[in-house]
Amino acid sequence: MTTRFTETLRQASQPAWSQSVGHRFVRELLDGAVSDAVMARYLIQDHRFLDSFLTLLGAALASADSFEARIRFGRFIGMVSGEENTYFLRSFDALGVSEQDRIAPPDSKPTAGFKAIMREAAATRSYAAALSVLAVAEWLYLDWAQQASQPLPASFIHAEWITLHDNPDFRDFVGFLRSELDRVGPGEAETSRDFFLRTVALEKAFFDSAYDEA
């Protein structure tokens, strides 16, 4: 039985993939034990690259080779722009993170790296490149979120971040991303592998950076 292209990429990204999925931040998040300071630092930085993420999603929509794929991306863009962005704003309010607190800290190195790789992939106008970054950003999060046990943590800040990344629609979207990358990635294997592996490394570094003192 032939191994899926996306699975070969995940295997090539080891051990960084497993280190991310089993990271201290993930373990504490699933236990509802992430401190407010760490959670605030993480969310401030994560919200920073939402603009670049939307740019990448738009590039994937524009470079997709089917109407059905463009519809899928359009729907997901709506979710990120609405439900996910609103989660950030509600969490900032609950954590007492002011607008000044959100803009004052400089970008962490991983945040700057994410902004750069998302815009780099978008600029290639390659569907495979865009998919390679998106597949990591969504699939890796589904991988860790599926480790959650019930009941979820009491705080909505923890619980909703988990459910945003493990629900039927999100699982379906990750399946779609993988299927599309399985289909077009082999035709641009070197590009796909390069973007995929660099994005996995950034995910690990991003989780690490949540524990860096401001």
Q: Which structural category do the helix and sheet elements fall into?
A: mainly alpha
Terminal-residue CA separation: 49 Å
Principal-axes shape call: globular
Helical fraction: over 70%
Q: Round the mean pLDDT to the nearest integer and report it.
A: 96
SS element count, helices: 12
Listing every helix as H and every strand as E from the N terminus to the C terminus, the arrangement reads HHHHHHHHHHHH
Radius of gyration: 17 Å
**For the report, how would you describe the main beta sheet?**
none
What share of residues are in beta strands?
under 5%
Low-confidence stretches: none
- Total count of strands: 0
Domain Thiaminase-2/PQQC: 11-212
Catalytic activity: 4-amino-5-aminomethyl-2-methylpyrimidine + H2O = 4-amino-5-hydroxymethyl-2-methylpyrimidine + NH4(+); thiamine + H2O = 5-(2-hydroxyethyl)-4-methylthiazole + 4-amino-5-hydroxymethyl-2-methylpyrimidine + H(+)
Pfam families: TENA_THI-4 (PF03070)
EC number: 3.5.99.2
